[in-house]
Amino acid sequence: MKSNFFYGGHYQAVAASIEDYINSVPEFLSAQTARSTRAAGDAIEGLIADRFDTGVVKSSCSRDPPQTPP
Questions:
Q1: What three-state secondary structure class fits 68?
Q2: Residue 48 near residue 56 (C-beta atoms within 8 A)
Q3: Which of 3, 6, 2 is nearest to 15 (CA)?
Q4: What is the rounded distance in angstroms from the CA atom of residue 16 to the CA atom of residue 41?
Q5: Domain chopping of the chain, boundaries
Q6: How many helices (DSSP H) and strands (DSSP E) are in the chain?
Q7: What span, in angstroms and rounded, lies between the C-alpha atoms of 47 and 22?
Q8: Are 67 and 12 in contact (CB under 8 A)?
Q9: Tens-place pLDDT, residues 1-14
Q10: How far is the CA of 30 from the CAs of 2, 15, 33, 46, in angstroms?
Q11: pTM for this model (two decimals)
């Protein structure tokens, strides 16, 4: 059985939602953190983990197909 999450296109909605959220957070990386891929990854992981259950991802994981913007 193929995963509806991937084959139904839901992963694209999740990726777009996460990207929009990260881009909306003002200045969460210091200059020092931005120079380290590991530190930047840890900071981004923290942002996503803080919001994972509050709708940034959850709303994109429904069984309905993703909506295409007009």
A1: coil
A2: yes
A3: 6
A4: 18
A5: 4-61
A6: 4, 0
A7: 7
A8: no
A9: 788 878 888 888 88
A10: 41, 24, 5, 15
A11: 0.61
